[in-house]
Write a structure and sequence with these properties.
17 helices; 397 residues; mainly alpha
């Protein structure tokens, strides 16, 4: 195992100068591969997301332990609680977690770490709650309402982004004022499995994935497999939307490199979806179906504040939790088990007070094949911002 790691490091596969960008390209390609596979095998052509599945997992736990009546809320009437083994939305979440486990074990890097002190625990609980609440109010997170929504040329991508970016700025400032010098791990030590157990544990995790696939419905198995791939890529690349977006909020948070990587992933995915669209393939675009743009915007603000406080996005909290980060486990638990169920109780109230303009709107429905142009324009603007962030970061260094 050590020899494998040395060879990979020498080749720059995981740690090379351009490795993050290569992984982002692969991430975008795998995203379109999932859509294409879903189209070929099941005739659906779905664009992937995370938080619908997370909210169902949280709802199942909540209904089992706290309140069975949550299943009767308006939210869970729209997103019914079903067996995870039959549900692609839930299995992709489990897959990303397993991907983080498998990748970290295979590289001999899995360990229980980042045990939070009191302030860090508050940070995780508060940030995770806002991530869960905001994402389900908006019916999407940094994957469904950002990566996949921009790839779908959805108007919801614009609304969510306009809310999320200032939200990240606010959340980052809250973090700097309250948590930056108070929150931290209790110890820098970590608890890793004995070296002689690393390979057996890796095999055990892989066998668990195989068993889940065998006992799942075929389409759920497909999403599980792709979820594992996403989790592996996430762990190897350290790809994180929160990191990239915080680079916009302040130059102290990064060089713009992560933001560029996020944009590469979106660009590859968007081009793949565009090709399928002009070929006339039946696609289920990521449009936060049923939510108006004001609801998506407000959810984006809340979600962005959560990202800024927690310092992690929905996707990265999953693969980080899988690799043993206790802090990320707390963030994820707060997201799934607190924020999302609480939103379910409030969902009907939000729907009743908010006007719901322009739901289910894609630029493809307005502009035809030219609908990709708003996505490309957005990416160009963000590339310029990333360049500015890089220059600002260089000056701070």
């Amino acid at each position: 195992m050590e020899r494998v790691q040395q060879v990979l490091k020498a080749r720059g596969v995981f740690w090379g100068r351009y490795g993050l960008y290569i992984y982002a390209l692969i991430f975008g390609a795998v995203s379109i591969a999932l859509t294409y596979s879903d189209l070929v095998f099941f005739g659906r052509g779905s664009i992937w997301g995370i938080t619908t599945g997370e909210s169902k997992l949280g709802g199942i736990v909540w209904a089992s332990v706290i309140d069975p009546g949550i299943a009767a809320t308006q939210y869970y009437k729209e997103f019914p609680l079903v067996n995870p083994l039959s549900d692609p939305a839930q299995m992709i979440v489990i897959g990303i977690l397993l991907g983080g486990v498998i990748a970290s074990l295979a590289l001999g890097e899995f360990s229980l770490k980042h045990l939070p002190n009191t302030w860090m625990l508050i940070q995780a609980l508060l940030g995770g709650f806002l991530l869960g609440y905001g994402s389900r109010l908006a019916l999407g997170c940094n994957i469904g309402n950002f990566l996949s929504a921009w790839a779908s040329a959805g108007l919801n991508a614009v609304s969510f982004t306009l809310g999320m970016i200032p939200g990240v700025f606010i959340g980052s400032k809250i973090f700097e004022k309250i948590f930056l010098f108070r929150a931290g791990p209790i110890t820098t030590r970590s608890l890793a499995p004995p070296p002689n157990l690393k390979i057996p544990l890796t095999i055990l995790a892989a066998l668990l994935a195989v068993l889940l696939a065998l006992y799942s419905q075929p389409r759920a198995s497909l999403f599980l497999a792709f979820g594992i791939v996403f989790g592996v890529i996430g762990y190897l690349s350290k790809l994180c939307w929160a990191t990239g977006l915080r680079e916009i909020a302040s130059p102290i948070w990064g060089s713009g490199k992560m933001l560029k990587a996020v944009l590469i992933a979106i660009a590859i995915y968007a081009i793949g979806v565009w090709i399928l669209y002009i070929e006339g393939a039946p696609l289920s675009l990521a449009l936060a179906k049923g939510a108006g743009q004001l609801q998506i915007f407000i959810g984006g603000v809340i979600f962005g504040i959560g990202m800024g406080i927690a310092g992690t996005c929905i996707f990265s909290s999953e693969w980080r939790a899988g690799s043993g980060s206790i802090y990320s486990m707390v963030v994820l638990a707060s997201t799934i088990l607190i924020g999302m169920p609480v939103l379910a109780y409030h969902y009907q109230w939000w729907k009743s007070i908010l006007p719901q303009p322009l739901p289910n709107m894609s630029f493809y429905s307005i502009m035809g094949p030219l609908g990709i142009l708003p996505t490309l324009a957005f990416l160009l603007i963000l590339i310029l911002i990333a360049h500015i962030a890089h220059r600002a970061y260089s000056r701070t260094g």
